[in-house]
Amino acid sequence: MNDENTSDIDAYVRLRTVLDGLEIGSLQYCLDDTHPEKRTQRTEELIEILTPIVEEIQARITGGVCGPGQYNCGGVCVPYKCPPGGTKAAKLAS
């Protein structure tokens, strides 16, 4: 394996690690509270924080439209059809 491939793999592993931490931390933050209202509030907070990041990344990739094999789920491109409630959740930050 050459240095360029090793560098690509290292960068991917680091990004994947950061994304995994974001996912688990976000879920823990939202679900750890025992009060449903607080969980909803925390979920809305994170959607508000994360949606602009997702939109910025998508804009850099495709100019803000979903690419082939992706679905627009309330302004967020995902590789699956938007689940019930998914559109509403993504639009909370709008």
What's the helix count? 3
Helix content: 55-70%
Shape verdict: globular
Task: Flag low-confidence runs.
Answer: 89-94
CA radius of gyration is 16 Å
**Elements, N to C (H/E):** HHEEH
What does this 3D model show about the protein?
The chain has about 90 residues and is mainly alpha-helical. The chain has one domain (about 5-90). Helix content is about 65%, strand content about 5%. The chain contains 3 helices and 2 strands; from the N terminus they run ααββα. The chain has helices at about 5-30, 35-60, 85-90; strands at about 70-75, 75-80. It has a two-stranded antiparallel sheet with strand order 1-2. A hairpin with a 2-residue loop joins β1 and β2 (about 75-80). α1 (about 5-30) packs antiparallel against α2. The protein starts with a helix and ends with a helix. Residues about 90-94 have low confidence and may be disordered.
